[in-house]
Amino acid sequence: MGRLQTMANTKYFGTDGIRGEANGEILRPAMLVRIAQAAGLVVSRKNSSRPAHAGKPTVVIGKDTRLSGYMIESALQAGFTSVGYTCLLLGPLPTPAVAMLTRSLRADLGVMITASHNPYHDNGIKMFTPDGIKLNGGYVEEIEELIDNPDRIPRVSPDNIGKALRVEDAVGRYIEFVKTSLPPRMRFDDLKIVIDCANGAAYKIAPRIFWELGAQVIRIGTEPDGFNINAECGATHPQALAKAVVHHGAHLGIALDGDADRLIMVDEKGDVLDGDLIIASMAQFLKSQGKLQGGGVVATVMTNMGMQRFVEDMGLKLIRTPVGDHYVEKAMREGGYNLGGEQSGHLIFRDFATTGDGILAALQMLAFLKERGGNLSDLRKLYQTWPQKMENIRLPAGANAAEVLESDAVQGSIKSAEHAMGSAGRVLVRKSGTEPLIRVMVEAESESDMLKHLGTISDTVRKSV
């Protein structure tokens, strides 16, 4: 089965909010002020029936550890206060903490300044509704319309300009929130774990949580300098974690990304467990406990066919969505599912959270292992993965991804591969929603078939760029 995934027709928002080069065309101070003003006005209109804090709408703002976060935070603060918002500043905190605090503090809007797994020179903005759900659909269209028409943005009177306040107990609130997701009195006193925080938003909070729960914690990726976020560390580069786990004789390793909404794990042998395997393991466990809702799990088009067959062999459904954890969350919410996520490590436990949460997911996995017994490496025996590989092809400036993807040559190479593999393989070609890339993924029962078709399609895309 093959598929070509296209992006929604948006100008500034991608798969996961707004993202680009810091101080570039979009993420420069003047544009950031306009983005904040537009978002604030649209959200105020849509939330007009909600009671405001002291008569003013409120936005919660968190960030990761990128140097550009200071500039972006200041610019957004100026934009929001200019349209009458009170800004509650959280400082460096994981993205899921911002989503949780948006709900907990009854804010009108939540904002996380991050480019997630991207390198330091990029940054971005993720936005959340009062329910802690990522902004999309009608919100995005109206915000973009106002960004491009700043003359329609009214200025408030001097008496109605907003102000900014620091939330001093934000860290403690989130720590207690994730702890309460565990069974009562559960501790991890017998565990030695290595945590890689990707020099990102969770560099202080994640080691503290696991230490408070009794684990012996070895830290890596916890010395951010504004430039080293995700640099050869974290969920997108688990090799350093794997080496550290083996070196220290740890029971397992936990890798987060720059904003800590992803989880990748490493077993005691140094082997990596991706999001698919974590979802499959938790599905089996929750089903055995009678706690899995909806009769299945939600994943994306990237999920391995081996995982799908394992889930279906348990008598469960696997619902696939486009790439992006907000698509996963929407399908979970609408279908009544409480477990879902992405192969990349965005994992949503909807009994507790409304977005991917790497720390919470890691706690759920540790609780599962404590109940189950055995080693993390035992989970690798659950199913046989199909050979799967992805090529990332960078788009030159000015290239039109849609034209490349829809060209006769690219379409022909995709159809040829699909015809040759039949039900024994699948193809996914899509534009990245977070970087200027076209991603080509091929999966097949035969590794030689997978590599052959991946090479042919990727070469065709490169020639068409």
SSE order and pairing:
Elements: E1 2-5, E2 13-14, E3 17-21, H1 29-46, E4 58-63, H2 69-82, E5 86-92, H3 95-104, E6 109-113, E7 122-128, H4 138-147, E8 164-166, H5 170-179, E9 192-196, H6 205-212, E10 216-220, H7 239-248, E11 252-256, E12 263-266, E13 272-273, H8 275-288, E14 296-300, H9 305-313, E15 317-321, H10 325-335, E16 339-341, E17 347-349, H11 358-372, E18 388-394, H12 401-406, H13 408-421, E19 425-431, E20 437-444, H14 447-464
Parallel strand pairs: 1-19, 4-5, 4-6, 5-8, 9-10, 9-11, 14-15
Antiparallel strand pairs: 2-3, 3-7, 6-7, 11-12, 12-13, 16-17, 18-20, 19-20
Helix pairs in contact: 1-2, 1-4, 13-14
Class by alpha and beta content: alpha/beta
The name of the CATH superfamily of the largest domain reads: Alpha-D-Glucose-1,6-Bisphosphate, subunit A, domain 3
Oligomerization status of the protein chains? single chain
- Please identify the top-level CATH class of the largest domain: Alpha Beta
Q: In the CATH classification, which architecture of the largest domain applies?
A: 3-Layer(aba) Sandwich
What is the strand arrangement across the widest sheet?
Answer: 2-3-7-6-4-5-8
- What is the CATH topology descriptor of the largest domain? Alpha-D-Glucose-1,6-Bisphosphate, Chain A, domain 3
Looking at the structure, what is the overall shape? globular
- Please give the domain count: 4
